[in-house]
Amino acid sequence: MKISDLSEDMAKWTLLEAEGKNTHMTHLEDLVFYEGLNGAKKALNHLASVAGMLSGHGGKKAKITTKWDGSPALFAGKDPKDGRFFVATKSIFNKNPKLNKTPADIRKNHPDKPRLQSKLLSALKHFKKLGIEGILQGDLLFAKDDLKTEEINGESYIVFKPQLITYAVPENSKLANQMLSSEIGVVWHTQYVGGPELSDMSAQYGPVAPKSTAQVFSDNATYKDLTGLASLTAKQTDSVRRGIEKISGLIQKVNPQSFNNIMKNKEFKDLIEPFVNSRIKSGESQVSNATQFLKDFINYYDDRKQKEIDNLKTGIDGRAGQARLKDMESNRQFIEDNSNALLGVLAVYKQLIQVKQILIRKLNKVESIGMFYKTDDGYEVADPEGFVAIDKIGNAVKLVNRLEFSRRNFLDIKAWK
After folding, report:
1. Which of these three, 191, 220, 249, is where a domain ends?
2. pTM score, two decimals?
3. Cα(174)–Cα(136) distance, rounded to whole angstroms?
4. In the listed set 188, 220, 252, which residue is the last one of a domain according to the structure?
5. Coil, helix or strand at residue 131
6. Which residues pair with 269 in a beta bridge?
7. Which of 110, 211, 277, 393 is the most buried (most CB within 10 A)?
8. Could you tell me the residue range of the domain that residue 176 belongs to?
9. pLDDT digits (tens, 9 = 90+) for 305-354
10. Do 209 and 237 belong together in one domain?
């Protein structure tokens, strides 16, 4: 069976309406924890679509964008209520949105943050000339004073470092000249449509970016492989196909009711992501052995709950402490009683990661702007932050090597001032 055929089969499993705001995108594999059986099928559908694209089949069914390590996230467009142009950070989604339509708004909405104010003032001044349709969301790459000239491996580059990754462009290139002549640089990845209120608008991923102007370097995040190096070989295509078939078989072995009952457990859902992140921070695999993963999670759960009890004024002897102890014992028992189903879920989770990593390694082959991690000894070559897979109805998930980028990101201290 071809990957393109698998992709068609996966698509029949679920068709969910894409909606909402792009404030926090889920890692592909974590869909099994947040959406249960349907999430596992959705994750598999994404993998099949991306694999189909990279193998030369099914390219129209998947869209890939590159995750840029820019900061801050910026929104720009016209307020549907009054038609006035604004720029904003993620505070656009506050109960009382902070829309910056004037320099005075920027100073009022973001006090004591001079660096952020400076970048928002530049964005407000120059983005108006881009002719933005609707509202766009993107990541700020640089302001003019962020661009520096540095030597890397004997070559001179124009570099900028919005967050963790340092981006480098050969100094004498056309792209470097374009950036150096700009006041601000941004990459766009999401468009918001609908209305009439901001809260009524929904996200559409992978929009066409406005053309750059003399003052603004503007690009979209659409994945561009101009080299052909990201195409899967016949051997790799077969390996991915077998991995996808294995995931499909594992999903079918898990009792659907058990799968979803586990994911409805609030304690599990609330703590599974911070537990996984704690493993990533310490350099551990997300899940190498499912049985050990469960044991470690129970210990993590017990420790978290015990700290909550210890922080109570009355400790374990008070009514609140006793209630939490009862909840702790009940939920621990729930996990133990459903351990077989959980082991099945974790087998799906592990295999999703393995296939995802094959695809990420291929996607990383694309040649684009140079990327580096700055270290005490100089520069270390970096891969992109990750990618976003968008299916044919607009659902989007992150494809990130979490042991590489996410771990570095967790350990890196950032502050926007």
Report:
1. 220
2. 0.80
3. 26
4. 220
5. coil
6. none
7. 110
8. 73-220
9. 888 888 887 777 778 878 888 888 888 888 888 888 888 888 999 999 99
10. no
